[in-house]
């Protein structure tokens, strides 16, 4: 059966066990074979019985309920009963009077998933689920009933346990290392991503957490009819165009995932097809690895257990007789098992693209990458992407920094949670929120019918200035976060509070970090005073680029965040990349090179670090080193070698006002990698003045201040 056909009957956050309480209390058993279905002692409404009876839950002929008919004894074994019988589910819940959390006995094959399975005194209050990884998810709605079965039966933990028990090296094949099958329709594990570790997650890599769909449509029962199990397709069409059937959902591509995940050059295809492309690449890598490294060719058949078989004639396809249990693949290495497990985990959730597409893009990409490490000719991932754009990258430190705390403080929520900016725009203040997986549509859009944006006329900057691209211009939204958190004003206030001279050390002075990507402050220059502007100096104001290309959204794709370089060629001609562009005259850095503004600033930036280090060593008496990736960025350079070595973890503490000003500006330029384009003249002026102040005339010899 193709994945597309499977989707028609199987796409789900839930494909079974998805019934919410219609009214309080337990329901009597409603078998597919017949009987008088009861709801609280009265006949169940006919429409409910009719809806349920046409669902997979009620199909007494399905393999899910008939698989054990030929067994002796004819019963559903303990390991399977929880999800393949009414009695087993009730047993697991403890609703039959037995211990909860375990199935105590085999169950009858003559039941389906009836009313009583989901409507009983235990499920009424059930709000948590323990996943195969051992992780418990709490605070759930009625979807907890669904998630007990739609969670799979394996996880990163069980795969790792099997590998450890095998005692094998990463690329050592053994017939004793068998395939681990996640089982089927593990939609809940997909939905919760790295929170429950349902797929195999590679050590050291960060993965998408729960997929945060729009409120009201972020759980099993939010997206599926609780009795028919069908998708609420008509409700999807409110936000998603051209959706009239379940199959149409496979064509969806939202702006928050505007990267080419599978690297095929097609940015118009849906997320479903992006993942299908990655899965094809993974299968290619699996087959190449099996032949080259494991030494035994492999093929996959999604309809025959145990799915992976020896490719006896090494032709890459499943031929007659190959997909048979005696021919099961018997040369798994730990690396191959990890990748094959993930291939199957994706394959057996046909709704994976909707449940958590970003998670599976990462899982499939990493599976290919790990196999590539052992291949003579790796599968080409050069054009593929693992993560979505930054605003939607739920693995980024910008969103994951507070996971251990469980709360993002109010000082950070405006820009680091999906709810913070709308709350700030509505209330004018910030409060704490739980960590978000990323920004969301609702962060910038007021509704999902026409996706109107929050309209702002001006934005307050850290300096106190209120600035704007124009009344109601969309890019004003960007300025709320891309403005930094410090300014000339705050640095001066901090220095004044210390009450010391320019070259006097004070323990009251601490490094002031502008924060990151303060592009808006750079663009508005002296109007925003985002960098430290030296007294008595004149600075460029807002960078007046050509009309129509002078705001955030006119130069960047609003969702992919990429620079729309093709638009630049109209004026700048062909160039290797935007860093090569040079329109302004003058050799700012004095090196005589014909280079773009980015090159000019890079040289001055490098010179400023050298001047800072000379000043710190000679004037302050404590050598300093910079590490852009480690807070608080400036460290004591104990061995005076000019770099922050791994063992040099002492934050720099002997600041003078002069050193702070220069270090602040150095950090500012480092944390706006597009400064050359946002306002190159302004940043050149600031770097020049910083060099002159901290290093004297000799530090700017040969340079030109624009």
How would you describe this protein?
This protein is mainly alpha-helical and about 700 residues long. Among the domains are: about 180 residues, no CATH class; about 220 residues, no CATH class. Helices cover about 35% and strands about 5% of the residues. It contains 26 helices and ten strands. The chain has a two-stranded antiparallel ribbon. It has a two-stranded antiparallel ribbon with strand order 3-4. Strands 5-6 form a two-stranded antiparallel sheet. A hairpin with a 7-residue loop joins strand 5 and strand 6. Helix 4 crosses helix 5, helix 12 runs antiparallel to helix 13 and helix 16 packs across helix 17. The protein starts with a helix and ends in an 11-residue tail after the last helix.
Furnish the topology, listing elements before pairings.
Blueprint: H1 3-10, E1 38-39, E2 42-43, H2 46-53, H3 63-66, H4 78-84, H5 86-93, H6 115-118, E3 129-130, E4 136-137, H7 144-147, H8 156-166, H9 187-192, H10 220-223, H11 233-236, H12 271-294, E5 298-300, E6 308-310, H13 334-347, H14 352-372, H15 397-400, H16 410-416, H17 420-427, H18 441-444, E7 459-460, E8 466-467, H19 476-479, H20 488-498, H21 519-524, H22 552-555, H23 565-572, H24 597-620, E9 624-626, E10 634-636, H25 657-670, H26 675-695
Antiparallel strand pairs: 1-2, 3-4, 5-6, 7-8, 9-10
């Amino acid at each position: 059966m193709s994945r597309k056909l499977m989707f028609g009957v199987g796409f789900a956050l839930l494909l079974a066990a998805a019934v919410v309480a219609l009214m309080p209390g337990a329901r009597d058993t409603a078998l597919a074979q017949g009987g008088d279905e009861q709801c609280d002692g009265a006949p169940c409404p006919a429409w409910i019985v009719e809806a349920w009876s046409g669902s997979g839950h009620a199909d007494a002929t399905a393999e899910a309920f008939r698989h054990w008919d030929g067994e002796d004894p004819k019963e559903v074994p303990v390991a399977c009963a929880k999800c393949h019988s009414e009695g087993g589910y009730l047993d697991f819940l403890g609703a039959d009077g037995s211990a909860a959390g375990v199935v105590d006995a085999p169950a009858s094959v003559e039941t389906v998933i009836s009313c009583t399975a989901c409507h009983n005194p235990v499920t009424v209050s059930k709000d948590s689920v323990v996943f195969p990884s051992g992780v418990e998810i709490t605070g759930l709605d009625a979807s907890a009933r669904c998630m007990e079965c739609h969670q799979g039966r394996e996880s990163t933990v069980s795969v790792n346990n099997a590998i450890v028990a095998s005692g094998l090296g990463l690329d050592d094949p053994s017939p004793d290392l068998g395939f681990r099958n996640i089982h089927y329709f593990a939609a809940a594990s997909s939905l919760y991503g790295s929170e429950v570790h349902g797929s195999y997650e590679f050590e050291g890599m960060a993965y998408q957490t729960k997929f945060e769909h729009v409120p009201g449509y972020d759980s099993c029962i939010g997206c599926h009819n609780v009795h028919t199990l069908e998708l609420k397709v008509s409700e999807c069409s409110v936000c998603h165009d051209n959706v009239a059937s379940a199959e149409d959902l496979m064509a969806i591509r939202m702006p928050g995932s505007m990267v080419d995940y599978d690297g095929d050059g097609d940015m118009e295809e849906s997320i479903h097809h992006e993942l299908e492309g990655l899965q094809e690449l993974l299968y290619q890598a699996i087959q190449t690895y099996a032949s080259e490294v494991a030494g035994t060719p492999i093929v996959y058949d999604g309809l025959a257990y145990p799915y992976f078989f020896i490719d006896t004639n090494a032709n890459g396809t499943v031929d007659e007789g190959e997909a048979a249990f005696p021919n099961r693949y018997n040369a798994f290495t730990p690396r191959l098992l990890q990748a094959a497990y993930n291939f199957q985990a994706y394959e057996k959730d046909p709704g994976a693209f909707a449940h958590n597409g970003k998670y599976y893009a990462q899982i499939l990409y990493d599976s290919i990458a790990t196999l590539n490490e052992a291949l003579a000719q790796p599968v080409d991932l050069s054009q593929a992407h693992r993560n979505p754009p930054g605003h939607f990258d739920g693995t980024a430190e910008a969103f994951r920094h507070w996971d251990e705390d469980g709360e993002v403080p109010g000082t950070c929520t405006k820009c680091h949670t999906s709810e913070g900016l709308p709350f700030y725009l509505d209330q004018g203040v910030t409060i704490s929120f739980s960590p978000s997986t990323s920004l969301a549509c609702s962060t910038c859009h007021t509704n999902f019918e026409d996706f109107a944006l929050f309209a702002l006329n001006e934005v307050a900057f850290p300096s106190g200035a209120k600035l704007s691209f124009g009344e109601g211009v969309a890019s004003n939204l960007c300025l709320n976060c891309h403005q930094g958190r410090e300014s000339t004003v705050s640095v001066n206030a901090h220095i004044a509070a210390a009450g010391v001279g320019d070259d006097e050390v004070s323990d009251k002075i601490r490094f002031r970090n502008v924060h990151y990507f303060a592009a808006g402050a750079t663009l508005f220059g002296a109007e925003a005073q985002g960098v430290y502007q030296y007294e008595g100096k004149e600075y460029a104001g807002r960078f007046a680029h050509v009309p129509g290309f002078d705001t955030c959204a006119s130069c960047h794709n609003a969702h992919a965040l990429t620079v729309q370089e093709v638009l630049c060629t109209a004026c700048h001609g062909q160039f290797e990349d935007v860093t090569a562009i040079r329109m302004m005259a003058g050799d700012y850095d004095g090196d005589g090179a014909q280079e773009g503004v980015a090159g000019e600033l890079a040289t001055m930036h490098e010179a400023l670090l050298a001047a800072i280090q000379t000043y710190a060593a000679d004037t302050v008496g404590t050598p300093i080193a910079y590490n852009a990736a480690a807070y608080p960025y400036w460290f004591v350079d104990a061995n005076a070698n000019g770099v922050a070595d791994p063992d040099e973890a002492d934050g720099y503490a002997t600041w003078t006002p002069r050193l702070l000003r220069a270090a602040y500006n150095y950090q500012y330029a480092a944390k706006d990698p597009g400064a050359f384009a946002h306002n190159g003249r302004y940043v050149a002026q600031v770097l020049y003045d910083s060099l002159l102040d901290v290093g004297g005339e000799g530090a700017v010899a040969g340079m030109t201040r624009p």
